[in-house]
Automatic annotation (TrEMBL):
One Pfam family here: FUN14
Protein name listed in UniProt: FUN14 domain-containing protein 2
Record-linked InterPro entries: FUN14
Chief location: mitochondrion
Cellular component per GO, a single term: mitochondrial outer membrane
Record's bilayer topology term: Multi-pass membrane protein
Chain's role: Binds directly and specifically 1,2-Diacyl-sn-glycero-3-phospho-(1'-myo-inositol-3',4',5'-bisphosphate) (PIP3) leading to the recruitment of PIP3 to mitochondria and may play a role in the regulation of the platelet activation via AKT/GSK3B/cGMP signaling pathways. May act as transcription factor that regulates SREBP1 (isoform SREBP-1C) expression in order to modulate triglyceride (TG) homeostasis in hepatocytes.
Family: Belongs to the FUN14 family.
Domain of life of the source: Eukaryota
Transcription regulation listed as a keyword: yes
């Protein structure tokens, strides 16, 4: 009787995924432009629905964040007015001015790291290849923000 030896191929996923764009890692190895896979109506519907959901969530989270920040500032003012705490507003103003100067300094250089540039370029290429999907997403996002 013959002895059957099982042989397995070893696939190193780290090496396999190292030089692949992030969207191909997420969606599938055969995933290219959605224009290659779906018709225009499907792309618009998918983009619109995902955009609307994203816009709706952003709207709700934005309202919650604005309420939290505004409420915190309101409570700070009440505590300051009633004497529970004392805020050194001159020190706050100095710190804000320092932060503004640092922001101006960092933004004046306008130099992005090569890693950030490559990611930005990947996103731009993805958006260019999927213009219809991107347009649907943008429209849906605005509708989601408005609803």
């Amino acid at each position: 009787a013959g002895v059957k030896e099982d042989s397995f191929d070893v696939l190193d996923l780290m090496e396999y995924t190292k030089n692949r764009p992030w969207w191909r890692k997420v969606f599938a190895p055969s995933s290219g432009s959605s224009a290659e896979k779906y018709n225009v109506a499907t792309q618009l519907v998918i983009g619109g629905v995902v955009g609307w959901c994203t816009g709706f969530v952003f709207q709700k989270v934005g309202k919650l964040a604005a309420t939290a920040v505004g409420g915190g500032f309101f409570l700070l003012q009440i505590a300051n007015h009633t004497g529970y705490i004392r805020v050194d507003w001159k020190l706050v103003e100095q710190d804000v001015n320092k932060a503004k100067q640092q922001l101006k300094f960092h933004s004046s250089g306008n130099k992005m790291s090569p890693e950030v540039k490559s990611r930005v370029n990947e996103v731009i290429v993805f958006l260019k290849k999927n213009v219809i999907l991107t347009g649907g997403f943008a429209g849906g996002f605005l509708l989601g923000m408005a609803s």
